[in-house]
Specification:
single chain; mainly alpha
């Protein structure tokens, strides 16, 4: 005897079984129905999508109006807004912090861009703000002082020692000191923004005419000097390439010859040769034969040649004093 009052689950299961049996008995009905009513189905789909898009637009407009009303109220009542914010912050501290984090991650790129723009507009003010933030962190027990690991300290010392050795070698070769200086990131962004503004600025007719008047041909002596420097660099590259191949093939022979000459000089009361740079100097002399501009491939005329000659000397280690 069947139950006169079946449950909802039983009723749903019975209807599903009936639909399945009917679909199996009429396998082509759904396809035929879609084919007969294709235009009507498409029309209903379009109407449904238009209605959904309209609801989304209305909801978005409603939210935007609420945001504008909240902004206007906050602008007219700054003290009440701050008090309400503090009450919410004290009542829901975790929710407030999570909301701050969510806002930051949603707008991370825009926040970073605004920070870079402020730093580029006033680098001094940005540096002062960073110093105040560090002071607040230290006062709150959050010391942000970074300390390198022992391996990093060793790496930094090695770099400093190498820089000092290179400066001494450059001075002994008669070369000038490095003229580069460090520029911090805010200053670089400020300079880049100023350059972009300068080159993107539209020019008037008078300014264009003045610029064209300044566009004079390069003096012939500067052109000749540039061509000569280019030719010298090309010769240096070719000589170094030949010297590198010759040194790799005859390194043992060159070092043995230098050692023999050094012993003979020492026995004669003279200073021995430098066993690190002298073999490479012989290779350089061999590679320079036949070049009219061989003088440009000297340690005092080319920093590239000087570095190639002192390659073995730089590999000796930080405990070598030049």
């Amino acid at each position: 005897m069947s139950d006169p009052h079946p449950s909802e689950e039983e009723r749903a299961a019975r209807l599903a079984a009936q639909r399945k049996a009917w679909n199996e008995a009429h396998p082509g009905y759904n396809a035929e129905y879609r084919e007969r009513n294709r235009e009507d189905i498409r029309r209903k789909n379009r109407e449904r999508e238009r209605a959904r898009a309209q609801r989304e637009r209305e909801e978005k407009a409603r939210r935007q109006k609420g945001i504008e009303r909240a902004k206007e109220w906050a602008k007219d009542h700054p003290e009440e807004r701050q008090q309400a914010r503090e009450r919410y912050k004290q009542k829901h501290p975790e929710a407030y912090k999570q909301a701050q984090r969510d806002y930051y991650y949603r707008n991370r790129d825009a926040i970073a861009e605004r920070r870079r723009a402020r730093a580029a507009a006033d680098p001094q003010k940005a540096n002062e703000a960073r110093r105040r933030a560090v002071d607040r962190a230290r006062a709150g027990g959050r010391d942000s002082t970074w300390s390198p690991t022992p391996d990093r300290r060793a790496t930094y010392r090695e770099r400093e020692n190498e820089a000092r050795r290179l400066a001494r070698r450059r001075a002994r070769a008669g070369l000038p000191e490095r003229q580069l200086h460090r520029v911090h990131a805010p200053d670089r962004r400020h300079n880049d923004a100023a350059a972009d503004e300068f080159f993107a600025k539209p020019r008037g007719g008078q300014e264009v005419a003045r610029i064209r008047e300044q566009d004079v041909p390069t003096p012939p002596e500067l052109v000749r000097a540039m061509q000569e420097r280019s030719e010298n660099r090309r010769v240096v590259r070719e000589i170094l390439a030949i010297a590198e191949v010759y040194f790799a093939e005859h390194e043992v022979e060159l070092r043995a010859r230098v050692a023999e000459v050094s012993r003979a000089r020492f026995r004669g009361g003279m200073l021995p040769l430098d066993v690190h740079t002298e073999p490479r100097r012989h290779a350089l002399e061999f590679a320079s034969r036949g070049y009219l501009r061989a003088s440009v491939a000297s340690p005092t005329a080319s920093i590239a040649v000087f570095r190639w000659l002192t390659t073995d000397l730089a590999k000796r280690g930080p405990d070598i004093s030049l």
